[in-house]
Each structure stands twice: as structure tokens, then as C-alpha cells.
Amino acid sequence: MGHRSRNRNRFKEKTEFNPKYLLGGFFLICVVLIFVSYRYKDVFTPARVFVNNTITPMQSGIKTVGGFISDRFRIFSDIRRLLEENDRLKAQVDELKNENQILTQEKYELNWYRDLYDLDVKYSEYPKVAATVISREPNSYCNVFIIDKGTDNGIKKNMNVIAGNGLVGIITDVGKNWAKVRSIIDDDSSVSGMFLKTSDTCIVSGNIELLDKGYIDVSMINLKAEIYDNYEIVTSYISDKYLPGILIGYVSDVKVDAGRMSKEAYVTPVVDFQHLEAVFVITRLREQLDNLDEVISHDN
Q: Which member of 82, 206, 214, 280 lies 3.0 to 4.6 Å from 128 by CB, making a disulfide possible if both were Cys?
């Protein structure tokens, strides 16, 4: 066994060679080939032509394929970049929409707070409580609605409600922290009015069907009264529930009624009942006015 192992080791030693000899051999062959190809150009011309004819199309094809693959990678990279940019822009648009919505809401709230302030100044002689509309009948107009103030805030039945530039309606029911308002546009509403310029009286009646045209009814105008379009109508001094001098609206289409006993017309309310959000409740009842002469008439 020992003899056989020694022979195997000797054979391995003979067959193994150093890699640097192989590298040196290749280098020598390359040098020889370079010298020969340079020295004998004509001899190697067919081989060179064959190599060029074979390798050049392959190089061209490889270049074309490489260019195609490079273009596809560039396109995919551009698409990914564009998608990322699109997502970023969408996020910015959503953020801007949200900011714009907030600004629009704040502007809207500022406008009706400004309207309330102007109304407070206009009817400064009346004590008032500001309230917000929290519920309304299921139609597009606030003919009957609920506000967020009640007896805890000094609200009582038959107190007058104003907004915008004038009269909204009257409190018909009240709880601790809520109150129900019937507006002058409701079919059950009837307000004793007066033409500010002539002091002629009339009756302003709610008519929800006319609101799409922007009107409600005016009747019982003195047949001899000289009333013209755009005359102001305010609450009259003879009303038993409404405080005097509150602007109701502007008259139009004055004509003699069917019975020819009085005149009738339309009135355009000064309050926007379709977009009513906030109101003032005047916390003085009509019956609490001791001296009507102290009530101030207001110009619009």
C-alpha cells in the first residue's frame, strides 16, 4: 500500500504545473501572432476579412439590442419618475383643494358674521342674542327651522328673529337650548306691514310657492295709497307680535285686487331664506314696548 501511494504522489507532482507558465505561454503566442500578422499582412487578409464579416454584424446586433434594452430601461425609469411626480402633484392638488375649501368656508362665515354685525348696528336699540340654524324642514327654504338657543339664553315665544337686512320670522316654540322659528315666507305666516315712505299699512303673507320667483304676497293695501315699485315695507306699529320698523322687503307689481276694494302686490324679502345660517333673536317682546314713540325708524 505504501509503495502504491508513493507512486501516486510522484505522478501528481509530474502532472501539476505552475499557472504562471500557462500565462507566459499565452502571452508568447499572442506576441508571435501580432508579429506575424504585422509582418505578413497579405497572408492574414482573408482571415481578417472573415473575422470582420463575422464579428462586425454581431457587434452591430449587440449594439442594437443593447441600445434597445437601454432605451427600455430609460423609458421605464422615466415612467417611474413620472408616476412618482404625478402622485406628488396629486397630493399637492388635494392639499390645495382642502385649503381652498377651508378658506371658502372661512370667507363664507366671515360674510355672515359681518352681516350680523351690520344688522346689530342697524337695530342697536333692541337687545339681541345670536343663534345658528341647526335644523330645517326638508326643502330648499327656511320656512320653519330650529336654532341652537333657548330659554337658557333668555329666548321666549313670540320673540322676533332677524338676519341679513331685516325680518326673518318669529319664535313659535322654545326649549332649554333650542327654539323653533316660523319665517315670514311660511304659508301660515301673516305680518302687519307698513310702507316706510307713505305709512300706509298692508298684510305680508307667506307663500312658499312664489319663492322660486323671489316673492311673497302683499295684500290689503289702501286703494288710494300711492305705492310704487321698490318702496320699502317694514313691520307696522299696529302689529301685536312684531316689533315696529323692521325691514321686510321691497314691493313690486302693485295692482288693484279682484274685488276692487284694495290693492295687492308682491314683496321681495331682504333675507336670503335659501342660505340662512345665522340669525339674531330680539329678546324684547312687542308687549314690552311702553312707548312706541321711542322706537326709531331705520333707513335701509
A: 280
